[in-house]
Each structure stands twice: as structure tokens, then as C-alpha cells.
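Office hours follow-up: a student asked to see two folded examples consecutively, so here they are.
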Amino acid sequence: MLLPDQIAVRVPGWDRELAWESEPATRTWRLTGPGGQVRYLKTRPADAEPPLRAEVDRMRWAGTAGLAVPRVVASCQAAGAEWLLTEALEGKDATRSSLRAEPERLVSLLAAGLRAFHGTPAAGCPFAVTPQDMMARAAERVRAGLVAQSDLDADFAGLTPLAALAELTRLGRARLDAAEMVVCHGDYSLPNVLISAGQITGFIDLGSLAVADRWSDLAGAALSVTWNLGPEWVDPFLASYGAERDDEAIRFYRLCDGLGL
């Protein structure tokens, strides 16, 4: 991997190890310096959505807002890709088996972390996404033929993209009145929460951070808890956060995800 000059000059001769890879062609590398210092390098195609520069902007704002997020060392666009170099944070992600072995403790910790994130003052946050925005974007994607029936998960099996859009619109009307707008992570899931010594030490993958409906985070977190711990831990997670289960809100945001939002 040939690094652009803006990145290479900050990690000269550092060892590289692929940390994880996701779609669309997004790769994150763990770089280790001669003194043991660690940085992470994320790269993705310049035409990918959302663009990596969106995460750069959000990470910088989150840092000024007092959130525990990685510090941006450098970012640039080169060779048809975007590049983001950040300092490492202390801790391991919440999918570690040692953490999942104590699900009651873990869901309480995850709930407390999300509640604190949502408590970040929203004044001055330049990013916002409303349920109305979500419905409008979903309609654009469906009408442009960008959604396939196979994109929808098992809960919506049998729905065509148009039928899924109609269901989203029905559910979304309720969210217009019920939405509680707070600073949301945008992808609050176990892999994106770092923990050390029984404490949350940071949050990563902030490309969708915005002032948004708190249930957009709660629904995603509930799905991640289901995948990593089991569905029986969703209600304890919600109770620890301080929210009553809202299946209509969860369904709305699950549909948003299926429609590529």
C-alpha cells in the first residue's frame, strides 16, 4: 500500500497491520511506530457514501464538544481514495469475548455510554438528520432504483422496495411528532464502543454523527445487542438507558437501514 505524502510523512517506516475491512472497500490499518506508539489509518474510495471527509468533520466537532473520540492527525484525498489518520484511543471494542461473557454488566455500560453521548449539548452542532430527511432520502433511493428486495432483512421479507417505502412512510409519520432530537452517534454498536478496565474510553466510526432522533441510535444499538449478546438483552439495555421499548420506532429505523440510509 503506497501512502500519500500527507500521511506517509507522519508515520515514516511504521509497521502496518490490517485491522478490519468493510464495504464499500473501506479498510482500517493499525500502524505501530518504533517506540510502540499506535495510530489508525482508514481509507475508502473517494466516491463512497458517506464520504470519509464527513467523518473527519464530525470527529473534529465531537472532540471540541468533549466526547472521547480519536484525534485527527491528518486527512487527504489522493489516488482516487480518501485517507484519515487518527491517534489510537485506549481500550478494546465491546465485542471482546471477555466483555460479552458478562452481558448484564456490558449492557449497563453500553446504556450509560449512550445516555452520556446523548447528553452532549446540541447547540452549535452543524450536523442534523430528521425523520423527514430519512423518508425523503429513502424515497429518492427507491425511485432511482438503488434498493433491491434482497437489501431488506428477514423482518421485511416479501416487501418490494416500493412496499417497504410505503411502510417506512407510515411509521415515519409517528416519528415526526415523537422524535427527541439529541446528539446521536449514528452507528452506536458494540464494535464502535471502546472499553478498558470496566469503563468506556471512547467512540469510533463517527461518519453519521448528527443531531437526530434518539431512537435512531437506540434501534441500532438494540440490533447490535441482539447480534452480539442475544435478543433477551435488548429490554435490559433499554431499561438501563431509561427508555421504554418502542417497536414501531425500532421498525422504522431498521427499515431505514434496509433502504440504505
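And the second, which I mentioned at the end of office hours:
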Amino acid sequence: MRFPLVSLLLLTTLPALAQGAESHWYLDVHRFTPSLSGHYQGTSDGNPFQVDLKDDLALAKDKTKIGYGLEYQGTRFGLELSRDEQDYAGSNRIQRNVTINGQTFAANTVVTSTFKATNDTLNWTIRYLTWPQFWLGLDLGARATETEIHAASTSGLLGATVTADYKTTLPIPQVGPSLGFTALRGRVVGRAMVHVLAYKGASYTHSGADLRFFPLSWLGVRAFVDAEHFRVPRGSIKSDLDITLDRSGAGLGVVARF
């Protein structure tokens, strides 16, 4: 999605009309445990793909590493940097032939698999309209999701082992409206956003909400929900591969404010 340079310059001047609230930095650690579903169908770099993450591999949440984030939330704009990682694992006797990156697993064999996702987010929020306890804005940023699939099975009289690996990074712009509020003299802080992107037949939706409570002026707890839906039909941005990925879940964290 492209914006003319003049339009971007105009966008950046609008926050000057806003009336400010108090500015803060936030440093948080959190744990996010989303569910995962989706499929890969077609070919990638000439290698065939035919796999469903749920139906074929039975992938489920395995472990979640501690994520972290650094934010500045000011009177005119906000800036967010964050990272989170999840591991999924599965073991399933597959009911059909499954192909991952050119390697085929025969029906009726047991396939063990892992799926790792690492998400890095950079987001800039322009606050167009502000009131003493409420604001409306626009998010501009990017999110890079690195995914790794590993699968293995052992079959046959000789116990031959079959393995497959696939790794890719999905860089996705983040564009969409956001809003936030403060209450109880700054002890409660909330925010919500929706990012939507469509390009050459592919589509992406990212939505979330975040609520923070500060029993101390400098230390609080955080609860949030987040959902991503990624659709790449064959013939869109990848001419020969159809990808669907859905992740959604809730998280908890601890936040320092200064």
C-alpha cells in the first residue's frame, strides 16, 4: 500500500491540532499464548506443498517464551517496539499424503512436527483527536513474522526416517485506526486497534485490545487479546502457493511506567 509523499507530510502535521495528555514510557514483559490454524497448498520455489496445520499435523500450543515491549505514549504520538515468540508441537497419524517443501509423508504414518513463530512489531501511532481522557489515532508501522516448520516420521521395515523443513519471513505493513482512554486518574489505561491490508488479492487483518491497571504509579499489570488473519490465495503475491494462517489468543504481563 503506497501513500504519496505529500499526503504523508500532511498526516504528520494533523497531530499538532490535538490537545495533549500526560506522556509516559512503558516497559513490559508478557506471555502470549495464541491458537494456530492454517494451511499451505501449491508450490514454493518449485517444491510442492500440501499440508493443513490442524487436520494433518495436529499442532497445538507447546511453550511460549517471555515477550517484551517498549513504548512511548505521548500527547501527539505513540511509538511501540515489541517481540513475542511461540512454539507449537504435534504428533498425528496422518490420513492422507502430506507434502512439506517437496518432502512427502505417506498416509497412515505418524508425523511429529513443530512450528515456531517469532513476531517483531514496530508501530507509530498518530493521535489526531484527543480529549482529557480519550483519543483517536492512526497506526502506521510494520510487523515481521518468521515461521519455521519441522516435520519427521519413521516408517517401513528398515525404519527409514523422513524429515522436512521450511522457513519463511512475512513482513506485513500495519495500517489502521486505533483509540485509547485513561480513567481513575491514570490508574487504568486502555487501547484498541484494527489493522487491515489488501494487496493483489491477498488480505491481512490484525485486531487487538489492551487494558492496564496501575496499583502503583510506576508499576502495573496488563491483560490483552490479539488476533491475526493472513490470506494469500494462489495467484496473488505468491503466484503458485496458497497460504492461510490464523492466530488468536489472550496474554498477561507486567508493566513499568516512567
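Two things to take away from it. The chain has one domain: 25-257. Residues 1-20 have pLDDT under 50 and may be disordered.
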